Amino acid sequence: MASGFVSKLFRPPVFTQLASLRSGCMFLGKPAAAAAAGTRHFSSEPPLEQISRYPIPYKKDLPYDIVELMEEVESKGGFLPNVFKVLSHRPAEFRAFFSYYNELMNKETGRLTKADRELIVVATSIHNKCLYCVVSHSALHRIYSKKPTLSDQVVVNYENAELGPRERAMLDFAMSVCRCDTITEQHFKSLEDVGFDREDAWDIAAIAAFFAMSNRLAHLTDMRPNLEFYNMGRIPRDKSKDKAGEESK
What we know:
This protein has about 250 residues and is mainly α. About 60% of the residues lie in helices and about 0% in strands. The longest helix has 24 residues, at about 200-220.
């Protein structure tokens, strides 16, 4: 059951990037060698660092479907994002959160790309001062967009970032929703002028609204981003090394 959900939650490019971190970065505060040796540091053991002001449940105390999801995400990605651990404090809300997340961020319809969706999260989350979402979704944007600096520019000031007219109109609309501005027909016209329709406007607004909630939960819990997120997608992967590694197996 978890398999299909995980494959939607993290698409192949993300899995590849996450897995490549196993040999080159810290794993939840300990060298990646601990991970390679098969040591798991998620809800089955006490956390190695403070990632939430609420207690992180032990694996044995969690429902099976949540454990299954966590294990598959960690197995395919190389590490378990801290949001899974923190939200597992309330299993029913965990399920609702990731179900809606999946509907918003991985839907196959509409004109928003995966990179577009992540950029909306980055822009609105910096307005809401959410460290976790800014760091983690900047990483995902870098992977999907193949643009290693654009999310950093948006974090500083999206109005000065190297955005095209389409991306700028999209973020202008997202920020209007984020700030609770009065939405008028002019907002919709600005989107339509660059190729979006009203269903796309709903998608943009829903992402901004959902992550406004997510940002505030991160504030409440003092949720901390995994160290792995900071370097993801910044340096192009050396495909020759990947090929050499495959040939040596």
